[in-house]
Amino acid sequence: MERAYHKWFSKTLEKDMELLVFGHMGEPVIFFPTRGARFYDFENWKVIEAMREKIEVGKVQIYCVDSIDNESFYSDAEPEQRILRHGQYEKYILKEVIPFIRKQNKDKRLVSAGCSLGGYHAVNIAFRHPTLFTKVVGMSARYDLTISLPFFDDLFDGYFNDTIYYNMPTRFIAMLSDKRIVRQIKKMEIILVIGLEDHFLENNRELSNALKNLKIPHQFYEWNEEAHRPRYWRQMVQIYL
Fold first, then answer.
1. Which of 55, 70, 109, 139 has the fewest CB atoms within 10 Å, measured from its CB?
2. Where are the domains of the chain?
3. Edge-first strand listing for the sheet containing 135-139
4. From 3.40.50.300, 3.20.20.20, 3.40.50.1820, 3.50.50.60, which CATH number describes the 3-240 domain?
């Protein structure tokens, strides 16, 4: 399995950013890490190994990006600064990572995928920029970071503004009225996966219902147990990516 390490100084984030690429061709997948995880963790957790056959035959090419969650959502900065830093991370993906992928891979498709907080990143960026993506897969994710749940706090400490609103998929999809954007989202293949005992289950159902109300086709799967661990993600990526 072809593996390549890349690192460059991001002008957007003003820091060095790293990523790993697995595979030589196929449908390109931006794979977002879990909360506080790094670009190499999916490899360490054998999630990449679970896709070995697909990668080796050139069905998919996986781009494991790094995160800056500890500088945004999980930082000690003021809430307004947290969402602004997240916006810079999104810009890094849009202006640096995607152009890098386009130079590496001529396949016109593009998948956004992730697990846990990475699933949030995947779904949020795909729904905000639907013309760039052909498929999105969110696994074990929360799509409204402003809600408080057992063991999971409101990541903005009660603070709320329009920027936060437009980065919470459950919220902005439920109120989406722009028919042009709805048509664009409908063109994507959308897959949401969550465990029946996961704290994020109801939030996933809420997002699925919001999509249904807009008649946006999507696949929604509820797995047994919590299904919020690498051993489950190893199974999920084999099925959904």
1. 70
2. 3-240
3. 3-10, 15-22, 60-65, 27-32, 111-115, 135-139, 189-195, 219-223
4. 3.40.50.1820
Tens-digit pLDDT string for the chain (241 aa): 999 999 999 999 999 999 999 999 999 999 999 998 999 999 999 999 999 999 999 999 999 999 999 999 999 999 999 999 999 999 999 999 999 999 999 999 999 999 999 999 999 999 999 999 999 999 999 999 999 998 899 999 999 999 999 999 999 999 999 999 999 999 999 999 999 999 999 999 999 999 999 999 999 999 999 999 999 999 999 999 9
Residue 194's nearest CA partner among 226, 151, 238, 231 is 226
Asked if residues 100 and 91 have their Cβ atoms less than 8 Å apart, the reply is no
